[in-house]
Structures are given as structure tokens and as C-alpha cells.
């Protein structure tokens, strides 16, 4: 940026003040610009530390609910995932495309979690009903600090898990009540967020996995997301095997 040469006829005190203000403004712009550039440089993502753990690639599910239901019918056989569970996972992926667009969540990650956490709502010889709820509630053990579990005292008065002494993981995706309080969702739009409802739980899991601006297409972020669910590398590897299997089954 340049300024015209001074004119003796107008080079008054006011003129000098104006010129000084212009110079100050240019300096301010340069300083602010440098600051912004510094912020960009600090927050720019570096190389993917563990690209081998990137979310298994699968074609996006249809945006239309009826088309997703048809897709689920076709995918249930090849994947071995119950049709009703696939409807829930696909619905969460579709919702995440709007709510969590930069996360890149795929249904295959939710399918991997669902298989490991409750065999897609079938743990204990139960099964999902048409509403996406296990016929018999799925509850984890008391989190009393034994058998490798953390001790988590009751946080919800037993409202979700029925236990007023310790917390228990709830539903097909095994949400602890305190985590549900932060990420709970109403995935099926019935006005109620319920961790026993797989539609709701799948969208809540999407929010949880995508927290901290994670991009699940990056291996370091995908691994960090699944580790947040369970601090075990063996758990991460098992979820990944299930996710890869689901993605491979649908080509």
C-alpha cells in the first residue's frame, strides 16, 4: 500500500494526524494479519500419525429414510448385522452429515462398536424390536472398581440404569449415565432421548466419537475416538476388525 506525496498547501496539523492514523491502521492490519496467520499455522493439522487406522471406507448411505431402509434390507445378509440395527447406524451417519459434517462418520464405525458392545442389541439372547430397542434391557455390570472396571458411583439416581449405588453402562451401545448426560440424542425424532433406543444411542455415539473436532477419516483421530470409548488397544483392534468386515461385505 502506498500514499500520495504530501501537498504543502494541505500539509496541516490535521493532515499530519490523518496520515499518522492511516499509518497506524496499516500497522494494525499487518499485526492482526500476522496474528491470524500464526493461529492458522498453530491449528493446521499435521500428517496423519497412524493412517492405517483410518475409518474403513464405505459408500455413503442414502439421505432418504425409505431408501436407507431398503439399503439396510440388502446389507443385512452380507454383513450379518440385523436390519434394524443397520437402519439405526445409517440414520446416525445421515444425521451426522449435517450436524457433524467435518467428522466424516460412517455407519461402519458404529457397526463395529455395536458388534463389540452388545452384538447389535442381542446380548443375553435378546433382540431388537421394530422400535430399535432390545426386548430385554441391556445393562453392564456395576462399575464398582472390581474385575478391571473403574469405580463410578451413581450419577443419575438410578434413572437410566436402575442402580442407585454405582453406575452401569446402558443400552446396545453401553452408555454410562454421565456420558449420556453430555451426548444424549433423539435419533428417531420421537421427542425422547433414550440410550436403550438404538436410533438415539447411535446418534449419541456419533457425537461422542466426533468430539474434539475429530476427523474419523484420519487414522490418529479414528483411533483416539475409539480409545475414548474404551481405553484398550485390544478393544480398538477388535472394533476395527468388525468395521472392516462390514465395509468389505457391502463392497
* 3D shape: globular
Strand content: under 5%
**What share of the residues lie within helices?**
40-55%
Q: Summarize the helix and strand pattern as letters.
A: HHHHHHHH
How far apart are the first and last residues' alpha carbons, in Å? 57 Å
In DSSP terms, counting alpha (H) and pi (I) runs of 4 or more, how many helices? 8
Q: Your description of this structure?
A:
The protein has 251 residues and is an all-alpha fold. It starts with 12 loop residues before the first helix and ends with a helix. α2 (65-79) packs across α3 (83-99), α3 (83-99) packs across α6 (198-209) and α4 packs across α8 (233-249). Residues 1-42 have low confidence and may be disordered. 40% of the residues are buried. It contains eight helices and no strands.
Keywords:
251 residues; mainly alpha; 8 helices; disordered N terminus
Secondary structure elements and their pairing?
Layout: H1 13-43, H2 65-79, H3 83-99, H4 107-118, H5 177-183, H6 198-209, H7 219-229, H8 233-249
At a glance:
The chain is mainly alpha-helical and 251 residues long. The protein is built from 8 helices and no strands.
Amino acid at each position: 500500500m502506498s500514499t500520495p506525496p504530501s501537498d504543502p498547501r494541505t500539509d496541516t496539523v490535521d493532515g499530519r494526524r490523518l496520515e499518522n492514523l492511516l499509518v497506524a491502521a496499516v500497522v494494525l492490519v499487518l499485526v492482526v494479519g500476522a496474528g491470524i496467520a500464526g493461529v492458522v499455522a498453530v491449528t493446521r493439522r499435521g500428517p496423519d500419525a497412524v493412517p492405517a487406522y483410518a475409518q474403513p471406507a464405505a459408500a455413503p448411505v442414502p439421505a432418504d429414510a425409505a431408501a436407507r431402509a431398503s439399503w439396510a434390507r440388502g446389507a443385512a445378509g452380507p454383513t450379518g448385522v440385523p436390519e434394524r440395527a443397520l437402519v439405526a447406524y445409517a440414520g446416525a451417519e445421515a444425521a451426522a452429515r449435517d450436524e457433524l459434517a467435518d467428522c466424516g462418520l460412517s455407519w461402519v464405525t458404529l457397526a463395529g462398536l455395536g458388534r463389540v458392545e452388545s452384538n447389535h442389541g442381542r446380548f443375553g439372547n435378546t433382540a431388537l424390536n421394530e422400535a430399535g430397542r432390545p426386548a430385554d434391557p441391556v445393562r453392564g455390570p456395576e462399575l464398582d472398581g472390581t474385575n478391571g472396571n473403574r469405580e463410578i458411583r451413581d450419577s443419575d439416581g438410578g434413572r437410566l440404569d436402575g442402580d442407585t449405588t454405582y453406575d452401569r453402562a446402558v443400552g446396545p451401545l453401553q452408555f454410562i449415565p454421565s456420558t449420556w448426560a453430555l451426548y444424549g440424542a433423539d435419533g428417531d425424532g420421537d421427542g425422547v432421548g433414550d440410550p436403550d433406543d438404538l436410533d438415539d444411542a447411535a446418534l449419541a455415539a456419533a457425537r461422542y466419537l466426533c468430539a474434539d473436532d475429530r476427523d474419523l477419516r484420519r487414522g490418529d483421530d479414528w483411533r483416539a475416538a475409539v480409545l475414548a470409548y474404551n481405553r484398550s488397544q485390544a478393544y480398538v483392534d477388535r472394533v476395527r476388525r468388525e468395521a472392516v468386515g462390514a465395509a468389505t461385505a457391502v463392497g
